[in-house]
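name: query_chain
kind: protein
chains: 1
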Amino acid sequence: MPKIKFTKTALKAQRDALKQFTRFLPTLQLKKQQLQMEMRLCQAALAENEAREADLKRRLDNWIALFGGHDSVEKLSALVVCEAVDTGVKNIAGVDVPTFNAIRFGDIRYNLFLEEPWIDDAIVILKQILSVRAEHGILQRQYDLLAIELRTTTQRVNLFEKVKIPECRANIKKIQIFLGDMDTASVARSKIAKKKSQEVAA
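structure:
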């Protein structure tokens, strides 16, 4: 902690700093609340996404169990190829986070006469699973970025609340006491000087 000067300039600087900290603190607290709310929404979206994936996997497993052979999973995986995940960006409480738009798959080519009739439905479900997984990755990235920002914002709130504002108030009090004592001493000195000058004049 830097040593404070006991001057009127230092007192003004401490008052200005206190004003600035108390003005910014509510904004930081609001941002902290916003981030906490967004993280809860993100957690709910992740849970819903995981439930959707589990349901789709059950449906795919049922198709494979009913109609597929032991090589069905490998066959499906070879047919469905993810080419790219299209994402966007949105700003949440001052943080740029990625958003999931869509997933692009490569062209699927297979012989309609050689494959089982159920393969089309299985491909649709597999595409949905891959899409949900890609979305999950984006949601997780959103959550991680919000968590980093929340940690930083919480540190700033704590710094302002527990360090800077109390420090400024304590410094202001010390400087005021010092300046008050100096004024009292100055008045006392001037009275003594006045009395001495009156004694000399008499």
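note: The first strand starts at residue 82 and ends at 92.
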